[in-house]
C-alpha cells in the first residue's frame, strides 16, 4: 500500500494541535516530518501521527520534553518504570495541592472571622508548611504502612506521650531522618561485630557502644522514661504481629535484642542511677 502524506495544515487538524506546536516539535527534534516537498514544506505520515499521539499522551501525564524523548526510544520495561516514577511524582504534586487548598480554606475562615488578622493567617501558613515538611514519610511508606504504624503508636504510647512526640517531630526533617538512619546503621554494625566476637555486654567495648546507643535513644525520647517505655512497647507490639502483617521488619534478631537489653541495663546501672 502506498504511504499517504499529509501537509502540515491537514496533519494539525487531524491531531488537534496548532501549526506552531508542530513547528516547535520539529525544531526540538521531538517530531520530525517523514518528508518535505520540493518547496521545503513538511509532509507527515500515519506513523508520524502515531508518534504525535504518544507525545501528546506523555505531555498530558506531565513529562518534560527531554523525558518524552527518552520514553519514545525505550522498551516497554523502561517505559513502565518511567510511568511508575511519574505516577509517584504526580501523587506528590497532588498532595502539595491539597495542602495549599487546606491552607486557603483555613485562611478564608480567619478572614471571615477577622478581616485583617495577619499574624493569625501567617501562623496558619507556618503550621501547614511544617506539616508539609514532615510528610516526607509518604515518600518512603505506603498509606497502609502509615496506617499500621499509627495504630501501633496508639497501642504503645499514651495520648500525652504521642503529643510530645508529635511536637518534636514537627522540626524533624527528612535530612534528619537520613542522618539518624545512617547513625543507627553504624551502631547496628558495631553491635553485630561485638556479638560475632563473643563480647561481654558488660565489657569495655559493649559499654562504649551502650553510651552511644543511649544518646541516640535520648535524642528521640528526650530522656523521658515514660516515652522510653512507650518505645519498648512499640517494638514489643511490632514483634508480636505476624511477620507478613508488619509495616516494617524488626530491626534486630532475638539474640541482638537480648544483648542490647543486657548492655543498656548495665550501662544505666553504672552511669545513670
UniProtKB/TrEMBL annotation:
GO terms for molecular function: DNA binding; DNA-binding transcription factor activity. InterPro entries: DNA-bd_dom_put_sf (IPR009061), MerR-type_HTH_dom (IPR000551), MerR_fam (IPR047057), TipA-like_antibiotic-bd (IPR036244), TipAS_dom (IPR012925). The keyword Plastid does not apply. CDD domains: HTH_TipAL-Mta (cd01106). It holds the Pfam family MerR_1. Transmembrane segments: none annotated. The keyword Ubl conjugation does not apply. Keywords: DNA-binding. Residues 5-74 form the HTH merR-type domain. This is MerR family transcriptional regulator.
Amino acid at each position: 500500500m502506498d504511504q499517504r502524506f499529509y501537509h502540515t495544515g491537514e496533519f494539525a487538524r487531524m491531531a488537534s494541535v496548532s501549526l506552531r506546536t508542530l513547528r516547535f516539535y520539529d525544531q526540538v527534534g521531538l517530531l520530525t516530518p517523514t518528508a518535505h516537498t520540493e518547496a521545503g514544506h513538511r509532509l507527515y505520515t500515519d506513523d508520524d501521527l502515531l508518534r504525535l499521539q504518544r507525545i501528546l499522551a506523555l505531555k498530558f501525564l506531565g513529562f518534560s520534553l527531554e523525558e518524552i524523548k527518552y520514553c519514545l526510544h525505550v522498551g516497554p520495561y523502561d517505559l513502565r518504570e518511567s510511568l511508575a516514577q511519574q505516577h509517584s511524582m504526580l501523587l506528590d504534586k497532588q498532595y502539595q495541592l491539597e495542602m495549599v487548598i487546606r491552607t486557603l480554606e483555613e485562611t478564608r475562615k480567619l478572614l471571615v472571622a477577622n478581616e485583617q488578622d495577619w499574624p493569625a493567617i501567617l501562623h496558619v501558613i507556618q503550621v501547614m508548611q511544617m506539616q508539609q515538611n514532615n510528610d516526607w514519610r509518604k515518600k518512603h511508606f505506603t498509606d497502609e504502612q502509615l496506617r499500621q504504624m499509627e495504630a501501633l503508636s496508639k497501642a504503645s504510647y499514651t495520648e500525652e506521650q504521642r503529643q510530645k512526640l508529635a511536637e518534636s517531630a514537627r522540626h524533624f526533617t527528612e535530612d534528619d531522618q537520613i542522618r539518624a538512619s545512617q547513625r543507627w546503621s553504624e551502631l547496628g554494625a558495631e553491635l553485630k561485630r561485638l556479638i560475632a566476637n563473643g563480647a561481654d555486654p558488660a565489657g569495655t567495648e559493649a559499654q562504649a557502644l551502650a553510651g552511644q546507643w543511649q544518646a541516640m535513644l535520648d535524642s528521640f525520647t528526650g530522656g523521658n522514661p515514660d516515652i522510653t517505655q512507650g518505645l519498648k512497647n512499640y517494638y514489643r507490639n511490632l514483634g508480636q504481629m505476624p511477620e507478613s502483617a508488619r509495616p516494617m521488619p524488626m530491626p534486630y534478631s532475638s539474640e541482638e535484642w537480648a544483648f542490647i537489653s543486657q548492655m543498656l541495663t548495665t550501662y544505666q546501672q553504672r552511669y545513670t542511677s
